[in-house]
Hints:
The complex is a heterodimer. By secondary structure, chain A is mainly beta. In chain A, about 0% of the residues lie in helices and about 55% in strands. Chain A contains no helices and eleven strands. Chain B is an all-beta fold. Chain B is about 0% helix and about 55% strand. Chain B has strands spanning about 5, 10-15, 20-25, 30-40, 45-50, 55-60, 65-75, 75-80, 90-100, 105-110, 110-115. In chain B, strands 2, 4, 5, 6, 9, 10 and 11 form a seven-stranded mixed sheet that branches. In chain B, a hairpin with a 2-residue loop joins strand 9 (about 90-100) and strand 10 (about 105-110). Chain B is globular and about 45 Å long. The interface of A and B includes residues 41, 43, 49, 105 and 108 of A.
Amino acid sequence: AQSVTQLGSHVSVSEGALVLLRCNYSSSVPPYLFWYVQYPNQGLQLLLKYTSAATLVKGINDFEAEFKKSETSFHLTKPSAHMSDAAEYFCAVRGDSNYQLIWGAGTKLIIKP
Amino acid sequence: GAVVSQHPSRVICKSGTSVKIECRSLDFQATTMFWYRQFPKQSLMLMATSNEGSKATYEQGVEKDKFLINHASLTLSTLTVTSAHPEDSSFYICSARRLAGGSDEQFFGPGTRLTVL
């Protein structure tokens, strides 16, 4: 069985500062891991995904995430926050059956001017 | 890129009425679609898996007679909320699974905001 834990329901950073959103997973099989972003009243947009290739994955809008098997982590980072990055971010792992996605609780990213 | 649409984007209805939400994959065929429900400030809750040509698979605790799912074609799945009540008010999101070129990915619709008065 798989599960996902996102540390911090809210993360606040200043514009231009480093963004770090934490995600830890558990999985009995090699995981496929995803980060999605959701803007207010909108659906989800895929930021990036790990599918057992390179451990450092680059996504859209300068986001990247590193898969660390020893730490069972897949933290999302961005070097310099922009006001437009304010949104809800969800980490997910693909489930064993039926290709379902198992979701973290989400982290709301707040950008301070 | 793959596009998934939902219609309507927003609906307000009276208690006791039924509401149908459509999910369409616009440029690919999807044998599997997923329906999620999202409460304010919470994560997505999988309601059911919709399979083209067969019955949907519902998650534990989701009433199949309340939330009717029909996957009539490879590009269309519908969710009907029957006899809606105010507690059914929520944001409903669908996703469609695309298998192509060795990749297996879900693409999400923009969501439907349901408000039951």
